[in-house]
Amino acid sequence: MKTFQCSHCQSLVFFNDLICLNCQHSLGFDPCSLTLLAMTPVSQGSAEDNTQTIGSSGLWQVAGDASTEQASPAGAFRFCRNHTDHRACNFLVAEDDPEGYCVSCRQTRVIPNLDMPGNLQRWATIEHAKRRLFYTLAKLGLEEAVSGGGGLRTPAYEFLEDIPGEIPVMTGHDDGLITINIAEADDAERTRRRVDLHEPYRTLLGHLRHEVGHYFWDQFFLNDPQAIHDFREIFGDETLDYGQALQQHYQQPRGDWQSAYVSSYATSHPWEDWAETWAHYLHLIDLLETAANYQMAFTLKSPYGPISVRCLDPYAAMAGLATPQDADAPPSAGLIELLNQGMGVSLVLNSLNRSLGQEDAYPFALTTPVLHKLGFIHEIVQRKRSESCAI
Ligand SMILES: [Zn+2]
Ligand SMILES: [Zn+2]
Ligand SMILES: [Zn+2]
What we know:
Layout: E1 4-5, E2 12-13, E3 26-30, E4 35-41, E5 43-44, E6 53-54, E7 60-62, E8 77-79, H1 81-86, E9 92-94, E10 108-110, H2 119-139, H3 144-147, E11 156-160, E12 172-174, E13 177-181, H4 187-196, H5 204-221, H6 225-235, H7 242-251, H8 270-293, E14 297-300, E15 307-310, H9 314-318, H10 331-355, H11 368-387
Parallel strand pairs: 10-11, 11-13
Antiparallel strand pairs: 1-2, 3-4, 4-7, 5-6, 8-9, 12-13, 14-15
The site of one zinc ion has 9 residues, from loops.
């Protein structure tokens, strides 16, 4: 993800920040313009009769730029209720929006019991990861709340905890509802599960990206015979018995997954292959946006000589802004360049991690069949993006 600048003092600030450390303004993220804004409370009452109280209305407006005094967007906002109640969100809500919660938090239907020790932190950590997901989907034109349509509904979320004596909470997706077991927000517990399941990578953001992949599968393919036909050509027949396929995977996982899948779990069923590959697509897009934001450029060694890489912003590249000379090329042509850059960035990233004694940040090698699947996803995203009003 890109970094932001405080709209008042231009200091470097980050997506999840609540306050600008330089000018001390509260920061609010506007999910419509996808910008992080310095906010100032709207004062209420009259200054003349001394009844003016700052911020009592709960309304905020954008603080003007320190040098130009210009404030944009105009109008008043409220902070999301999860900001006011728990300091667990920094998204803004337009004054005329009847909802108390922001466009991301209102997608959450059930949260864990916050009276239980540790649950507030676990839940807040998940909501943070979910807002990152919201941002990426919005940039791709896949968030109805931002794109204003395109026929896509919005997923709903439940963040649940295991209750002793009851059936354990399964992280998963069912008909538009994404359930996450909040134990996944505990670093120690998530690491234990990752080791137990022999997974090289397990993160909250990864879970959300995977599960929302199932949600978009329903959106893209369920009622489109041609699309489902194309899906089966690449990922296989998803009418295969799901429960049986999963059971078989857990009993005897395929040893040859590296040749054509992003993960061992992706071999279990075409739906899981799609969701795993979809998650990697979002990983790579986000990774590249971050690298491009820092104007990252590097040189890789190869038998054919040095290869210079200058990272492109993937969203600009998709819009044809970064590579105008490729305007007539098929959509997947742009993807190959993006994927090559993404793999280059992950190589640098993994090398830096090893220098610090850390494990690889992106422990995957993408083979040709996987690149083919990513290309299929990219073309669908491009199509859906052009159908909605992407930012
Ligand atoms: Zn500032
Ligand atoms: Zn919120
Ligand atoms: Zn899945």
